[in-house]
Specification:
This protein is an alpha+beta fold. It contains three helices and eight strands, in the order H-E-E-H-E-E-E-E-E-H-E. The protein is 20% helix and 21% strand. The termini are far apart.
Length: 184
């Protein structure tokens, strides 16, 4: 009986460790957003996000494209970092990291409210650092973009991100930014 209890305790503790490894905090102007990463369906994308986030690459990066009722896009660590000499709002959305682009990891995970998914060009294997958070379900994106996580707490803070001009494909003047993005 004691062996069974020890085994159960071990599994409980190891599952808590695994769970914490896949939780990140996205700090926004209005509050903290808790995000669960899906390393089981998008391991390479999760690793990329964690790497860039833990290096501080996403800190001060703006939400350059925000479309009401659709999504908020950010993650251009090259031109979208408002504290960098390379910051250029007109070019935000065209850059990425110094790391190579990633091959797609499409799955059956749906694009629902709170889903985090990688942005890319028309080439499915062009995701690099940019990502978006869905304000509501977007099933037309399913199996065409790599879903790598989901907001589990704090979606009300995502909802407060400044919206862009719909006539300009969601471009945002004086955009909100990521304050920090780190592993738990």
């Amino acid at each position: 009986m004691r062996l069974i209890i020890n085994i159960l305790i071990f599994f409980f503790l190891s599952n808590q460790t695994i769970a914490k490894e896949n939780i990140m905090i996205l700090k926004l102007k209005d509050g903290d957003v808790k995000i669960e990463l899906f390393s089981d369906i998008a391991p390479n994308h999760v690793e990329r996000i964690k790497t860039l986030a833990n290096q501080g690459k996403y800190d001060n990066v703006v939400f350059h494209r925000v479309i009401d009722g659709f999504m908020a896009q950010t993650g251009d660590v090259q031109f979208g970092n408002s504290s960098s000499e390379k910051f250029n709002l007109a070019r935000a959305g065209t850059g990425g990291s110094d790391l190579p682009d990633l091959n797609q990891e499409f799955s059956n995970a749906p694009h629902e409210r709170g889903t985090l998914s990688m942005a890319r060009s028309s080439n499915p294997n062009s995701a690099n650092s940019q990502f978006f958070i869905c304000f509501q379900a977007a099933p037309f994106l399913d199996r065409q973009y790599t879903v790598f996580g989901k907001v589990v707490e704090g979606m009300e803070f995502v909802d407060k991100i400044k919206r862009g001009d719909e006539g300009q494909n969601g471009s945002v003047e004086d955009p909100d930014k990521i304050i920090s993005f780190k592993s738990l």
